[in-house]
Amino acid sequence: VLARQVLIEVDRDRITAVIPDSGPRPSDAHLLEGLVLPGLVNAHSHAFHRVLRGRSEWARGTFWSWRNSMYALAERLDPESYEKLATAVYAEMALAGITTVGEFHYLHHGPGGVAYTDPNEMGRALLRAAGEVGIRITLLDACYLRAGFDEGPLSPAQLRFSDQSASNWAERVAGLLGQGDLAGTTRLAGLLGASSRIGVAAHSVRACDEVGLATVASLSSTEELPLHVHLAEQAAESRDCLAATSASPTGLLDEAGALGPRTTAVHAIDLQPADQNLLGLAHAGVCACPTTERELADGVGPFRALADAGVWLSLGSDSQAVIDLFEEARALELNERLEQKIRGIHTPAELFSAATRGGAYALGWQAGAIAVGGLADLISVDLDTPRLGGADLRGDNPGEELLARLIFAASAAEVRDVVIGGELVVTAGVHRRLGGPREVASRLQSAMADLFP
Ligand SMILES: [Zn+2]
To answer: Ligand 1 mean position to 203 CA, how many Å?
Structure first.
């Protein structure tokens, strides 16, 4: 629904009224100029991968050769440098209109796999970075136990990801859950504070054995936590999984009790029809990361078929190849067009929903719509720019027309104002504490200079 002069009333972090054609603006209201939309949700991020942008794209190779450069980078990070880097990356996200991030976190330990004094120091660095920026975060702590189905010992970088056993992982995550602003009060679905919560993840069926999968599933179920897992990004994973277990990766998740409405399968590319049905019957979600999937030559997932099977879709910037949810939504449709040789596979409303509501649901937040009772996470988009200016709206459904224009033409750079939990975080393209694009670029540069002096 498209409306003009909408007054959105907020009490603390929730929307309490939405009044179209509201007349003169109350004196304590803040004017959001342009088209106001629900905040964008980035359901799958690895903050540190941002360093590889511009360093790794041109090399000939595959996902697996790219992974080696990511491992080399992972070996350089410590809690201090990670917090500095993640603050800059989340600031880039905030300027791009991302109001919630799902941080899929697997770099837990120090060099050699030695735990930090506080074993959750790296996770806490990410939570502090999100707090500094004012972005809502679900920290998805990933269980990582092995190099692969039959790949021998963990590499030095992988040692930093591993808790050695599923019970060690569960104990460490219990440490995260037990703290935060709400410690001692009723714990609610991993909530740590007004804008941070914990979710769980199995890194993948490659890196997490059956005991690990069952442990992650059980913690998700008892604590009501979102459960994320990288699934079938590569054909090799499906092949190795079938050889080792006689099940597909999706089948293995199902057997471990890890498929349900709290589950989000990330990528979901190399799937058989039976896998698609399992995901649909479980009412699971799938998070597509189309700009990463095309950059890493992963392939194109059967996202239309998944949606038709009952799966809800969300979107993620994953490797941070770009941080632009409009581009992800556009790529979801356009990648599938190249594959199917048909246009108009997902409607603009479905694509926008994947960039907002679908992600919010995947991360455990009541957000992604401008609706009474929901979180006051809003952005405004400047329509008077060369990218978006042009023809008047002429059709019977101007809202849909405008949404299509955004999906097919907008970029992160058109985002003007950003409100998260009722707080104005970005005004006219400038973060209120961390500055505009130039200041954020200089933060990114400085964080990376620390890693590659
Ligand atoms: Zn990922």
So the answer is: 8
Q: Output the pLDDT for position 391.
A: 74
- H/E segment holding residue 231: strand 227-231
**267 catalytic residue (yes or no):** yes
Catalytic residue among 44, 267, 346, 431: 267
Residue 187: predicted pLDDT? 62
The secondary structure element, H or E, covering residue 105 is: strand 98-105
> Do 303 and 313 form a contact (C-beta atoms < 8 A)?
yes
Residue 213 to residue 88: CA distance in whole angstroms: 33
Q: How far apart are CA 425 and CA 376, in angstroms?
A: 12
Q: What is the pLDDT at residue 181?
A: 47
Query: For position 183, what pLDDT does the model report?
Result: 47
The DSSP output letter for 311 is P
- Pick from 348, 314, 353, 318: which is nearest to 333 by CA? 348
Contact in structure between 284 and 277 (CB atoms under 8 Å)? no
Asked if 292 contacts 317 with a C-beta cutoff of 8 angstroms, the reply is yes
Q: Which residues pair with 286 in a beta bridge?
A: 265, 313
Residue 230 annotated as catalytic: no
| 48 Cα–ligand 1 center, Å | 11
Neighbouring C-alpha atoms within 13 Å toward the C-beta of 453: 4
Joined together, the tokens standing for residue 302 give 């059967």
pLDDT at 150: 86
Which residue numbers in the chain have pLDDT < 50? 180-184
25: its two tokens: 């603006």
Q: How many CB atoms lie within 10 A of CB 82?
A: 25
Closest CA to 230 of 177, 161, 175: 161
The pair phi, psi for residue 345, each rounded to 5°, is -80, -45
**How many whole angstroms separate alpha carbon 87 and alpha carbon 444?**
9
Rounded to the nearest angstrom, the distance between the alpha carbon of 249 and the centre of ligand 1 is 16
CA of 262 to the centre of ligand 1 (A): 18
> What is the whole-number distance in angstroms between the Cα of residue 186 and the centre of ligand 1?
32
What's the confidence (pLDDT) of residue 179?
59
Q: Which is catalytic among the residues 13, 240, 275, 318?
A: 318
- Å from CA of 109 to ligand 1 middle: 18
